[in-house]
Amino acid sequence: MRDPVTDTPHPARRLRPAAWLAALALALTGCGAHVATGPAGTDARPAPDDRPVTLTNCGTRTTYPHTPRRVVTNDVGITEIMFALGLTDRMAGYVMPDDKGELSKVPWKAAYGKVPWLSKKAITKEIALDAKADLVFAGWNYGFGEGDGLTPAALKKLGVDAYVLTESCHNGTDSAARGVMPPLEALYADLTNLGKLFHVEDRAQALIRTYRKQVADAAAHAPAHRPTVFLYDSGQDKPMTAGEYAAAHDIITKAGGDNVMKDLKDSWTTVGWETVVARDPDVIVVNNYGDTTAAQKKAFLESYAPLANVSAVKHHRIYVMDYAELVESPRNPTAIADLARYLRGVHTG
Known about the structure:
Strand content: 15-25%
Number of strands: 14
Number of helices: 12
Largest sheet: 6 strands, parallel
């Protein structure tokens, strides 16, 4: 299924039949994210260690026979998890469309310059094999998909291991729903697992402590009255939004908002506009990515007649966030702090 606004697939969900994100002390960068570095600013290199590691990922216990040396990642958030852990030297490349925002100002600008950008289209088995990958780090509908034939099981037959982004885990409620734990816990689970897999546990735990503190500090200053928030990803006939298991849900909640779609036991999914109108959000957060600009999405929301009396539209409370902030990524904690500041200025009633 293609996005009715952009006519391009959302790589964080790809709801379609086929085809389709400092020293150890972790010095804060200007934008609040963290970069692991070694001596003289070089990438911190994990000690060589090829002992087998067994991890539980999406409910499945998997043994990795050696420390991966040629990882291929899919999408911006997933790629930046590797960068945040200082694992640039363990990467063979990344796959990512070029519609994911400006990368020249992110803390990992240097890492993006070092690691090959293998494709701006959908990741494929051929891309992984051409890169001589020994691990593919992607997610269900973030690169992996039964319809595409790119699955961990299919890669295993080719001698390539896989790791699945926890935000994207199938949750068992139906064939498409995703999410098995609170979104930020999914980020921490992946950092913990990858820390073990690459033998950088101390670095992973330092990141988690820093992120937890950022989130706690933001939550401590949440507004007394929690504004209701609707996440608008894309779509005109039916809007794509964030349910309980999408990173956006935790971002909204920890920032002091109340996600109006929190009852959806899924990550990224569609709803009807009538539901949005009935729940009358105080604020709409726009996901900025794709060929349709944030300004165009905002213009659509403000001109769409059924939304005319929705509080967020009527009072011009539409807040824009970048895609990489709203999917599971190291940008989530800073995104919470930024949204919290905005929500503290929202007066409803």
